Amino acid sequence: MQNAIEACLLTKTYSATGKPFPALKEINLTVPTGEFLVITGPSGCGKSTLLHLLAGLDRPTSGQVLLKGSRIDHLSETALAKMRRKEIGFVFQFFNLISNLSVAANIELPALLIHSSRIEARRRREKLLQELGLADKANNLPSQLSGGQQQRVALARALVNQPALLLADEPTGNLDSTSAREVLELLKYYHQQGQTIVLVTHDEKIAQTAERVIVMRDGEIAENFYSTLRSDPSRGEA
């Protein structure tokens, strides 16, 4: 089975204060296609930095990132942007929806940016809204939705291009407990459909929803274990 994403000796060093600070220290990580991985750990441990490097939102100081077997860390900014639009879906803590666009337009936009036809973009949007229980909200603005509904729209937007990888950075951090539980159930649903997911959270309870959990401390992987939800014992480890 092809791996969705790999990190090889991934290192990130910041020096904003004049003194080098190693945010990540030679991380090796392999995420097989179809896996649901949670990365957790205390604030400042490097988990969000790792996610941003995997996404191509930041560049490593050294090391490599491979998406579906091809290096992305050395791509140009233009090539990275094209790759992200097509291959990676993002769900963030604060939704990041475009406030003056309807729910339907927010979801369809990523598909149109990769030149999908309007008919295909609409078909995928309608399917996702139906699955997410928001079919009647297509014409609403984000401000007319609850936080949980906005996050479901953000999830639909992330999935509309059928990405190879779905990355979620604290996707329940801005939600009440009921909405958080609903979003996690939806992530599990899409994982069961074959979606590869990497989710970053500081909440260890959320880790119970994943097949595999990585605990980070001080820029390193401190623990790496599989949960009872793991469905394929033959999958490789980090």
Labels describing this entry:
4-stranded antiparallel β-sheet; 31% helix; 6-stranded mixed β-sheet; 6 helices; 238 residues; Rossmann fold
Write up this protein.
The protein has 238 residues and is of the alpha/beta class. It has one domain (32-54, 77-226): P-loop containing nucleotide triphosphate hydrolases (Rossmann fold, 3-Layer(aba) Sandwich). It is 31% helix and 27% strand. The chain has helices at 47-55, 77-87, 103-113, 118-131, 147-159, 177-192, and strands spanning 3-14, 21-32, 36-40, 62-67, 70-71, 88-91, 165-169, 197-201, 212-217, 220-226. The strands form two sheets. The chain has a six-stranded mixed β-sheet with strand order 6-7-8-3-9-10. Helix 3 crosses helix 4 (118-131), helix 3 (103-113) packs parallel to helix 5 and helix 5 (147-159) runs parallel beside helix 6. The longest helix is centred in the C-terminal third of the chain and has 16 residues, at 177-192. Residues 231-238 have low confidence and may be disordered.
Task: Give the strand order of the largest sheet, numbering strands 1, 2, ... along the chain.
Answer: 6-7-8-3-9-10
- The N- and C-terminal alpha carbons lie at a distance of 15 Å
Number of strands: 10
Estimated structural class: alpha/beta
Shape: globular
pLDDT average, as an integer? Answer: 91
Helix-residue proportion: 25-40%
If helices are DSSP runs of H or I spanning 4 or more residues, what is the number of helices?
6
What is the CATH superfamily classification?
P-loop containing nucleotide triphosphate hydrolases
How many domains is the backbone divided into?
A: 1
Low-confidence stretches: 231-238
- Compressed to H and E, one letter per element, the order equals EEEHEEHEHHHEHEEE
Biggest sheet layout: 6 strands, mixed
Radius of gyration: 18 Å
* CATH-defined topology: Rossmann fold
Q: In what range is the share of β-strand residues?
A: 25-35%
- Second CATH tier, the architecture: 3-Layer(aba) Sandwich
- The CATH class designation is Alpha Beta
